[in-house]
Amino acid sequence: MRDRRPEGERLSRATAHRLSLYLRALAVWPADGGRMSSTRIALACGVTDAQVRRDLASLGHLGRRGLGYDAPELSAAIRAVLGIDRVWRAVLVGVGNLARALLRYRGFRTQGFEVLALFDADPTKVGERVEGLAIEPTERLTDRVRDLGAELAILTVPADAAQPVADQLTAAGIRGVLNFAPVLLRLPPRVKLVSVDLAIQLEQLAFLIQHGEPAADPAAR
Amino acid sequence: MRDRRPEGERLSRATAHRLSLYLRALAVWPADGGRMSSTRIALACGVTDAQVRRDLASLGHLGRRGLGYDAPELSAAIRAVLGIDRVWRAVLVGVGNLARALLRYRGFRTQGFEVLALFDADPTKVGERVEGLAIEPTERLTDRVRDLGAELAILTVPADAAQPVADQLTAAGIRGVLNFAPVLLRLPPRVKLVSVDLAIQLEQLAFLIQHGEPAADPAAR
């Protein structure tokens, strides 16, 4: 029995990010008799105890004073709020080393993301099977996204190909793009975008060292 | 002549992240006669014009009303604040597909990050050359980090190997870790950490779609 948060109430992006971290902590840390304390979650995620309690309170009345949280119940509540209490149908475009690394990463499926098709512009790659999927030509991207009812796209194409492919995906009705190409994509507001620019991550690290920010952030911000 | 910001004045992590984005915009967008308007930067980065002007004002008096910013001068000022107006010596541990993709990504070098050595625990990989570097055994990690004076480490090892390797790096005096293993690392405060958990990025995307947050964020947060 998990409480869904009332409609309209908005969760901030920062809170959503912390909830993702709490989910990791709940998954990897052994809970005593299925229970987990806010202190232990805070410790694992590098945030304050008060912050954890505040964030989790926004999910509904899950904690019991002195008893902590029921780990499975809490995980379910977080997954519901994040929208991963379901399977998201995804496609991947650009099957290079990064894509092969991502496809091998079991974290995706366990978190509710299923990659249904792979695409690449290089004709010599078409037909090759990677992690059980045959690479298809990028020309078929639009039709396939529609046929598969894919909602998410993972973009691991070279920088110069990213915007045209993103435009194709937008035309096909994709709802979200996870972009690894080091470019600033322009997409209509209805298509959500999360970009992972690896140089930016390194710059953030340099900044942290340079400015000696005390709190070490356990995950990409 | 760029203004360095006064000592002590602290830049927030969020601001630093936006500055990284502005740097991308400055690099990829053709500036008219070397000048760039805050409006154009805002457009490219998906933030408001006012936000750009506020962030850039904190770097010193770079903009001229009606004339916009001198692109090279602005880039230099941002790089100085982020601490990438120098070369960061880095090592990489765990030479799988992700590592190969990262090593091929020229963005690192151009942004001032130089990978000096590669390490892997798999003896069959030791000696193999990747992007001009020979893979070394992980046993030599501590000594080599000291000898090379490496400050940053890119961690692309499997989840279960991440903490032990991070501890080795900490012992070797590394200053920062860019972690791609899907685990919450525990490091002393003096070692800065930026983690890129790909499942978390997908969860953030699912959250954005689910909650229809209006502003599409152009880069990982």
TrEMBL record, chains A, B:
Name of encoding gene: rex
Top-level lineage group: Bacteria
GO BP annotations, alphabetical order: negative regulation of DNA-templated transcription; response to redox state
The protein's name: Redox-sensing transcriptional repressor Rex
Gene Ontology CC annotations of this record: cytoplasm
Principal localisation: cytoplasm
Gene Ontology molecular function terms on file: DNA binding; DNA-binding transcription factor activity
Subunit structure of this chain's protein: Homodimer.
Keyword presence, Repressor: yes
Domain CoA-binding: 83-184
Subcellular location(s) of the protein: Cytoplasm
InterPro entries documented for this protein: CoA-bd (IPR003781), NAD(P)-bd_dom_sf (IPR036291), Rex_actinobacterial-type (IPR058236), Rex_DNA-bd_C_dom (IPR009718), Tscrpt_rep_Rex (IPR022876), WH-like_DNA-bd_sf (IPR036388), WH_DNA-bd_sf (IPR036390)
Keywords for the protein's UniProt record, in alphabetical order: Cytoplasm, DNA-binding, NAD, Repressor, Transcription, Transcription regulation
Family to which the UniProt record says this protein belongs: Belongs to the transcriptional regulatory Rex family.
Function: Modulates transcription in response to changes in cellular NADH/NAD(+) redox state.
